[in-house]
Amino acid sequence: MSYEPINFAQKFSLFDDHWKPRVVAEMNDYQFKVVKIEGDFVWHEHEDTDETFIVLDGQLRIDFRDGSVELGPGEMFVVPKGVEHKPFAAEEVRLMLIEPRGVKNTGDAGGERTADNDVWV
Amino acid sequence: MSYEPINFAQKFSLFDDHWKPRVVAEMNDYQFKVVKIEGDFVWHEHEDTDETFIVLDGQLRIDFRDGSVELGPGEMFVVPKGVEHKPFAAEEVRLMLIEPRGVKNTGDAGGERTADNDVWV
Question: Does the interface ipTM go beyond 0.85?
């Protein structure tokens, strides 16, 4: 039989909202999520896990308390666990997040920006 | 301070050999590896873990005992643990592998195609 790959562009065509990660695949107890972001997010950290950002389209900046990193398409960064960070996108960015199942987008901060978890697309 | 992202194109510029995965980042006990492949590999499986393939350039086919999947740039596939598979690339493919630290490229098969593990670039 012919199996189907996961196509990022096709997945991004299925939603338009920002800051709402959608799961596209799982590997053991980790999830691959696609998300569109634009503007500023909240400062937060993930106490128990690293978090991986891979930029697929656009220019992402991740601010830290002591600096920042800028990522374009074809670039990635792993934010270590326990490190406060705040993503920022002047224009829309399409990115992939990789992290253990159950991680909330707002980490320890919580609040109104917290997205529903384990939403698949 | 300004942190540096991991740039896939830059990493691929640093080596030319095939079937030799290089680690570019770690997330908890998982590793992100880049590898160039061309031609046929050996049938193998990973008994203890799923394995993620993300194609960055070229056309990859992964054969299974009951079929296959074709992946192009911007596509991914997670091979479930315990499922025999054999990657194939008619022309050079640049891809990213994501799997737990310590996973061998030839899985249970071993043999002369087994690459050194935990080689960073």
Answer: yes
Contact B26, A78 (CB under 8 A): yes
Domains contained in chain B, CATH given: 8-100 (2.60.120.10)
B64-89 pLDDT, tens digit per residue, is: 999 999 999 999 999 999 999 999 99
Taking only the tens place, the pLDDT of each residue in A45-99 is 999 999 999 999 999 999 999 999 999 999 999 999 999 999 999 999 999 999 9
Chain A residues within 8 A of B76 when measuring between CB atoms: 5-6, 8, 24-25, 32
* Neighbouring residues of B94: CB distance < 8 A, sequence distance ≥ 6: B8, B12, B34, B35, B36, B55, B56, B57, B58
For chain B, strand residue ranges (E) read 2-3, 6-7, 22-27, 30-40, 51-57, 60-64, 67-71, 75-79, 85-100
Instruction: Name chain A contacts of B3, Cβ cutoff 8 Å.
Output: 64, 67-69, 77
**A13: Cβ contacts below 8 Å, ≥ 6 apart:** none
